[in-house]
């Protein structure tokens, strides 16, 4: 072996096409994994075809743990469609040359065409080497099934031409790896070549580990025959119901047939009809669908036997997996299956249902030697290991003479005559084939703040972070402020000016290899514009990090503007689809996100981090003359700071102090904050309160220095929010050495560590807050101390450490990964079936209301909804609201009779995961009371199915 690691380039397009869902995709991925850890130190390079963008992103995600990101490349093919449909068009030929040019530029030691038959019906253009190639080329040969069954697979001239051209390419490869002795014989038969090397196939270490880890199967429950695979003609699955029909009644009645695999509804119906045509009961056939490996192991172990009835297989992985699980594999005596199964007693004639029926009966009667099955399982695991496969591949590659002559023709000669109209496109095609150098950049989105800075909390964060990262006069070309507000694209600035960059061509931002995009701003209205830029960033191997400030619009929709939850949910789903990571403003928000990803069984890995926001204390030095308080300055004073809006819990604090005043507790409540939305009823209640201006104060406009004076003068801060992403007033109170009385939410527990002392009470409970205030007044005063908190400059440095320095809090790994999940696959976010029984388990509790809305036209009622089932709830079914879960109400008169049954709904913005609680609101028309409404019965329902029952009755 050479001292230098062998650089092996691999064509990864089979991980992008339909092959990714078949044995070929799995084979290539397992081979790459085995080669990546081989002791010889193979240096892997993989290229993907950007003409299939969503599949490229999915394949990159799956390869991320196997091949370093900077060694995964993209090139750009250009074809009209599949070769079997359109033939070998001019652009397909040019794209083949572009790929060869791409590989020549990378300059590996050997190129591996992992699946030369790709591109029959899609945009794939596999590497076929040829006269332009400057490196030795190996290829993998799986089978020649279309040539054995031409009437089924080569029905027209274009299909035949496609298959024969691809098969003939094996003659020009320097080495052909075959996956079985059978496939070696097939290759030699059809090509008369002798350049083949049998490397075999394997069962992955991860799969063997799942086999060993799974100890839960009870073998007495083995009452089904299992099939794993697709519904292609050659799979011969229709022989199984014919065989079932021939099984003796004593066995037939107790056996079921379970099918696992990516089989569509049409195929399911077709097979169910075949099953019924033999007079077999409908409940004896079951479709498990596409399953993850953990579930697959359970299915194998629970089966009486696997049946593999194919007319031909190049290998037979499902038979190998079943045997490794200790389950008999009843396989057709065809193709490579006999060499995989290794036991003639389990083989049958694929054209004979009676032969298959006899084998099933023999297994069901317990005629197989259990000890022999166990020995066979270990023998197959030892024989068919990916380590052995990798050893054979490495030996074959090192056996190649890598001294390659110069290409027989140059690129221009190979391209031939080009029409004038095509010149620019051909030039672009070849330019895009050249590997792009990696130049790390950080692109920080500040679009919404630059368009209109409303001085909201999020925009303050964006402004302060950007001021720190991009100071005036900055010339740092490793990071840029990014901006996009329309379809013209993205633009950049090098320094913070608080103005959008001009949309000149020289300010145009284009994705490049090495980009990290930080979506820092609340640019939610523009989320439909984002994929056009983020997709090529991901294609080139860049990172897209979305900033999550809180999950309030998803979990506490009742406390948001009506249009915010659906808009935020749409942005969040786009962010999930196109992000490689999220950075949050607190650990609590990061934990909420991790719980949500696990709850929906998000199918891809996701980096999760958080950082501390900065704080501006310098401007908060109190003036010489403090702001005026009540007449009795010695009276204990409690301060609330923040915009008055429903989720801040000002109503909870007011009702707590009303109870305290009624008990004779002489304490003052000072509320500081501008008047927000949905709160007019409470503001009116405060201003008309008997204690207003005495022991109850409201300051709408307070400058920084005046706010500092209020912090200095108060005895404690009250933070009574129902939900938050951070909690800046708690940090500010800590700066002034003041204790905090806070609602018991995770983020307040986290931020409260910086306060002089922190006391917590039940969320939304005036009684609990009043009790905590009395306890606080009786306790010894906390020692005043100033707590340390990062400046905005330090906060910006923390953020960069996470996003650029990769200092992540946690990396989410799916428990049940779905290989090659497309970006649009977000997990279990829609309801696909009618919920019954325990799937409807829930709890409804009144939080507040009814109270008048700002416009006076409705009464608002807020309830908490807790999902006590094990099912993810959503307000969307497979395509629309049908089957979705919603909150509704019935109008009830004073006699308790319902007189208006079906009313407006409140919807779940995204999902309500098992064990989670959401705050949801219903707006009841004020006119309902005028028409005799005395109560409303609030209840959950499933659209198109029915109401859940057990309503919550609320008096109007």
UniProtKB/TrEMBL annotation:
It comes from the Bacteria. Keywords: Transferase. Pfam families: Glycos_transf_1. Residues 213-378, 630-785 form the Glycosyl transferase family domain. The keyword Transferase applies. Signal peptide: none annotated. Gene3D superfamilies: Glycogen Phosphorylase B (3.40.50.2000). InterPro entries: Glyco_trans_1. The keyword Transmembrane helix does not apply. PANTHER family: GLYCOSYLTRANSFERASE WBBK-RELATED. This is Glycosyltransferase family 1 protein. It comes from Mesorhizobium captivum.
